[in-house]
Amino acid sequence: MAPRLTLSRLWVLCGYEIVRTLDQKTGRRHEEIQETKALVERIRVLLAKLEPARKHRKTDLEFAMPIHHHKDGVGWLTNQPYFVTRRALADKLLQIGKAVVGNAQSVAQPDRA
């Protein structure tokens, strides 16, 4: 289980950098990116700094407690009973990736009516 947790931790740290970059490049105007960034940031801060993110300082644990969800695999408990799985984060990242790519394609190829 330890290698899976280590890879999952690194995955979250890298995923945050992707979301942060997208947020900057879109000028912080994309609501879905900002929501995903807040979710990933909540876990990232607990994993990287071993302290809760500012917005959750009063509610979250001092570190992310690793869990194994029976359906979605590796995740982290941030406070009782709130937890986030790596799969949920991946799904959110895929959603914003599709939205950004779809938006870029529509800008690059305007309707030719």
Count of helical stretches: 3
Mean pLDDT comes to 81
Task: Give the strand tally.
Answer: 3
Tell me the number of structural domains: 1
How would you describe this structure to a colleague?
This protein has one domain (2-100). It is built from three helices and three strands; from the N terminus they run H-H-E-E-E-H. It has helices at 2-25, 31-49, 86-108, and strands at 65-69, 73-79, 82-85. A hairpin with a 3-residue loop joins strand 1 (65-69) and strand 2 (73-79). It is globular, with a radius of gyration of 16 Å. The protein starts with a helix and ends in a 5-residue tail after the last helix.
Kindly summarize this structure in a few lines.
This protein has 3 helices and 3 strands. It has 113 residues and is an alpha+beta fold. The chain has a 3-stranded antiparallel beta sheet with strand order 1-2-3.
Which key terms come to mind for this protein?
113 residues, alpha+beta, three-stranded antiparallel sheet, 3 strands
Topology overview:
Layout: H1 2-25, H2 31-49, E1 65-69, E2 73-79, E3 82-85, H3 86-108
Antiparallel strand pairs: 1-2, 2-3
